[in-house]
Amino acid sequence: MIRPVVQQERTGCGIAAAAALAGMSYAHAKAVAASLGISAQDPRLWSETASVRRLLTQFGLRASRATKPFRSWADLPDCALMAIKWHLEQGRPFWHWVVFVRENGRSYVVDSNPTLKAPLRTDFGRMRPVWFLSVMMKR
């Protein structure tokens, strides 16, 4: 099971998602991100995929290069980074990063939003994924 990591900054969902996938704390993931020049204050973290993919690579994980459109929950791979709450601001796309997991016959979403009552979500009808990146986990 992937342990949830709550984002410590309003715009730190990409760092928190990577930390959850790597099995480490937000503080540790933030320090590694900073060493790579990645910051929660940089809009590229939640409006492009390169920063999160670089962070995952640093943690020994691999994400697909290209986004794939979300079609259905059943069609997702066993582990994926997903874009939800997708919207445009001044013509630039922004989203909230979450992690989809399917294991032991169960599916759930790990959401780093600190305002949620529970970070493990199964309320799939309330989330509106637009696209995802497949993630290869360590074996």
Summarize the structure.
Keywords: Signal. The chain is of the alpha+beta class and 139 residues long.
What does this structure look like?
With 139 residues, this protein is α+β, with helices and mostly antiparallel strands. It has one domain (13-136). The chain contains 3 helices and 7 strands, in the order αααβββββββ. The longest helix is centred in the first third of the chain and has 10 residues, at 13-22. The mean pLDDT is 95.
How can the largest sheet be summarized? 7 strands, antiparallel
Q: Which strand-content bin applies to the residues?
A: 25-35%
What is the total number of structural domains? Answer: 1
Task: Label the overall shape.
Answer: globular
Elements, N to C (H/E):
HHHEEEEEEE
**Residues in helix, %:** 10-25%
Total count of helical runs of at least 4 residues: 3
Q: Class by helix and strand content?
A: alpha+beta
Number of strands: 7
- Rg, Å, rounded: 14 Å
Report mean pLDDT, rounded to a whole number: 95
Report how far apart the termini are: 13 Å
> Runs with pLDDT <50, length 5+?
none
Keywords: Signal
Protein name: Peptidase C39 domain-containing protein
Signal peptide: 1-29
Q: What is the topological layout?
A:
Blueprint: H1 13-22, H2 26-35, H3 50-58, E1 62-63, E2 68-69, E3 79-89, E4 92-103, E5 106-110, E6 120-121, E7 131-136
Antiparallel strand pairs: 1-7, 2-7, 3-4, 3-7, 4-5, 5-6
Helix pairs in contact: 1-2, 1-3
Signal peptide: 1-29
Keywords: Signal
Protein name: Peptidase C39 domain-containing protein
